[in-house]
Amino acid sequence: MTPAGSHDFAVSERRTVYEGAILALRVDKVQMPGGRVAEREVVEHYGAVAILARDEQGRIAMVRQYRHPIGRRLLELPAGLLDQGDTEDPLTAAQRELAEETDLAADSWRVLVDLDLSPGFTDEALRLYLAEDLRHLDAAERTDEEADMSVEWIAFDEAVAKVLAGEIVNATSVAGILAAAAADRSTTALRSVDAPWPDEPTALRRRRRP
């Protein structure tokens, strides 16, 4: 057996079990240490972007949106899928989502944090941006759940308190708010928008290419 931390988890076979609108499920046969071959289910996902948009008063723009799997409305940071193929990079997607969900644009963009959301079974990853120097745009047209979505401006300290009180539970929003709080107290500079994103999902986008 190879030393711990050096095994090559080679994939000998892949098969697609399900393919839907926003995800696909495949089963990989993976070589385990010691020679055993194990099946691993992998949910392929487009990946996503989210935005912590903060104004000059220190408030952040959040949306209250109905989430059907949970069965209730959640208070969240604006976010959206990387589902436009190769025509849209993550920053452009974030700018589009901020405009579509909050009627805002920003002149200052930095990478706040990158998240692998549940790497035990999915390749879904998300890049979360800090957007500042905000500008208001004309109201966007919204459909489906987004037609019912409301925008709320939350004082930053209040947002942190809502996370700790269990009132903000969306994982992306929790991570973004707490990361911004840590960044405000850190001497480490935030990354530029062209910083590498090693775990950006590509499998589902490759699958959907013509």
From TrEMBL:
Q: Name one GO cellular component term.
A: cytosol
Annotated Nudix hydrolase domain residues: 44-176
Protein's UniProt name: NUDIX hydrolase
Q: Which GO terms describe its molecular function?
A: hydrolase activity
What is the native source organism of this protein? Gordonia bronchialis (strain ATCC 25592 / DSM 43247 / BCRC 13721 / JCM 3198 / KCTC 3076 / NBRC 16047 / NCTC 10667)
InterPro entries registered for this protein in UniProt:
NUDIX_hydrolase-like_dom_sf, NUDIX_hydrolase_dom
Matching Pfam families, A to Z?
A: NUDIX
List the residue ranges of the region (Disordered): 189-210
The lineage's top-level taxon is: Bacteria
> Which UniProt keywords are given for this protein, alphabetically ordered?
Hydrolase
GO biological process terms, semicolon-separated: nucleoside phosphate metabolic process; ribose phosphate metabolic process
